[in-house]
Design brief:
Layout: H1 4-28, E1 31-32, E2 35-36, H2 39-59, E3 67-75, E4 81-84, E5 91-94, H3 102-108, E6 116-121, E7 135-139, E8 154-158, E9 164-172, E10 176-180, E11 190-201
Antiparallel strand pairs: 1-2, 3-4, 3-5, 3-11, 6-11, 7-10, 8-9, 9-10
GO molecular function, one term: peptidyl-prolyl cis-trans isomerase activity
GO cellular component, one term: cytoplasm
Protein name: Peptidyl-prolyl cis-trans isomerase
């Protein structure tokens, strides 16, 4: 049978062991103000991870193969705005797939998320040089007699190979109609103000 003295000795040892455990827990940061808080480190790690993700997003750069969304405003050399996404949804496209004119594709590479830049694209990197050979004069009687032909009107013309091209009427007389198959912005340098608003998917 255990004596009272031995019982007191064992209790003292147990208290000493518990005290050591508490000191170790405090030193490891698992106990704060006498409360066990293992969640605190987990929360801190999650917050740190979120900060890292935000930092990565802020420093993300557009590269070939990325699908991105941009806002843009396009102007001519004289300052005339010919197109803009202001007031509309951002333009979405994949860099390098030929969905945009070459100069625009190249201009967005390296843009940081939320960064804005202004680029000027020469005609040969936009809609090409203006070609006089794409302007043709057709006899007025080749069109239906009741057709109302006006300058600026866009028509679809079928080629011998079956390809459909768009032509713009640039002049109308009683006998002739001048048709221009050049793109409306052919031969023009284009300036774009571009803002990268989202990298939808990364290559």
């Amino acid at each position: 049978m255990m004596t009272e003295k031995k019982m007191r000795s064992r209790s003292t040892k147990l208290i000493g062991i518990l005290a050591i455990l508490i000191i170790l827990l405090l030193a490891s940061g698992c106990v704060e103000d006498g409360n066990l808080q293992p969640e605190s480190k987990s929360v801190a790690l999650e917050e740190h991870h979120e900060e890292l993700v935000e930092d990565q997003n802020e420093t993300a750069q557009a590269k070939v193969g990325d699908t991105i969304r941009v806002h843009y405003t396009g102007t001519l050399d004289n300052g005339t705005v010919f197109d803009s996404s202001v007031g509309r949804e951002p333009l979405q496209f994949t860099i390098g797939l030929g969905q945009m004119i070459p100069g625009f594709d190249k201009g967005v590479v390296g843009l940081n998320l939320n960064e804005s830049k202004t680029i000027t694209i020469p005609a040969d990197q936009a809609y090409g040089q203006y070609r006089a050979d794409l302007v043709q004069v057709a006899a007025r009687d080749q069109f239906p007699p009741d057709s109302e032909l006006e300058v600026g009107q866009v028509l679809q013309v079928s080629q011998p190979n079956g390809q459909i091209i768009l032509v713009t009427i640039t002049n109308v007389t009683d006998t002739n109609v001048t048709l221009d198959a050049n793109r409306p912005l052919a031969g023009k340098n284009l300036t774009f103000e571009i803002q990268l608003v989202e990298i939808v998917s990364s290559a």
